[in-house]
Prior knowledge:
alpha/beta, Leucine Aminopeptidase, subunit E, domain 1, Aminopeptidase, 15 helices, six-stranded mixed beta sheet, 35% helix, single chain, 2 domains
Amino acid sequence: xxxxxxxxxxxxxxxxxxxxxxxxxxxxxxxxxxxxxxxxxxxxxxxxxxxxxxxxxxxxxxxxxxxxxxxxxxxxxxxxxxxxxxxxxxxxxxxxxxxxxxxxxxxxxxxxxxxxxxxxxxxxxxxxxxxxxxxxxxxxxxxxxxxxxxxxxxxxxxxxxxxxxxxxxxxxxxxxxxxxxxxxxxxxxxxxxxxxxxxxxxxxxxxxxxxxxxxxxxxxxxxxxxxxxxxxxxxxxxxxxxxxxxxxxxxxxxxxxxxxxxxxxxxxxxxxxxxxxxxxxxxxxxxxxxxxxxxxxxxxxxxxxxxxxxxxxxxxxxxxxxxxxxxxxxxxxxxxxxxxxxxxxxxxxxxxxxxxxxxxxxxxxxxxxxxxxxxxxxxxxxxxxxxxxxxxxxxxxxxxxxxxxxxxxxxxxxxxxxxxxxxxxxxxxxxxxxxxxxxxxxxxxxxxxxxxxxxxxxxxxxxxxxxxxxxxxx
Length: 474
């Protein structure tokens, strides 16, 4: 999408006009109050939240309702802008015009329009969605062009994550994920190293290898390094769950539960997308990312319920269920990034538990960890990211549920599942400040909503980016 600022407006462009409920617009070049009052009187359009009305008056104009002004939040505004872009696409618009009267919202506007235009149609041969080719921003005040470039790159990183998570598992296996990560590293300027089974064995990552054991596709340990502040020592660690497909193993999922399991690597997609955004924008921070990519399949070589595994840090794990596999790969990846890569703090992001969906639905991500300071910083970052969080507790009695009479830990801790899964992971971070993001409910959407499409949402890219960029301890 090409973005122009204060370019001339042609007749074929569509002007998008946000309207509060029963709002009288400030007089501007469009002078639309007469038309709005007419629509209000006839009850055709009143600015209600989520409403639209298309008007042809010399130019193509699409009014979209924001609802009561007193109830409108930045998040609602984003959602309504995204809905308006999708409505414009239905009307076959190729070029949009937005009047941006407050420069502080410029970045969010650019990001939202780009993300709302996203559709994953790589494998469709016909009936593709209309794409927005140009966005014309009309600004009356001074603005910073760097803001436009920053949020373009952030939207691009989010769409890269969406693309990766939407790819079918017969295309995006661990080796293909590693190849694409290498290519992105070369394009955006961050380091990528990839290790195969033999190297993983030497690293004693037996929990990770157990999950990968039934698949014919070799596991790939992907390590990324972005060095945006070479003069400083602090390094952030990001670990993304990288199950390119999860059948559940011998504890097999029902068919309906497998259909979206191509997206069980959405955490790794978020980490990769974050690296592209950090690199494109030259954020002054050092970041290392680790992805333990593999498939959880079924064969005579696979691991079994009742097996006992020894993780990289030496702790033994009783396998209560092979479909609680993500935490096994994350356990070894967390220990690796802390002990081998020497990161100062670590965040893991994973589609980890169905319990997160049952607790928080599809609009809110669960956050847990051992550092109140870091969790607080994530809540701060969630506002510009427009990615909602809810903190869950890690009380000691939940941790007691992970004990097993034959091993140090059980990979099943019972209810509440999101908390006991995080409590399991805490055994592999030691004293390192750690935050866990369970995106099982937010990584995929069953239907388009605002600027979030049906399918992969790219959840986590903007959150991680704003957390790292905004961290005052950089």
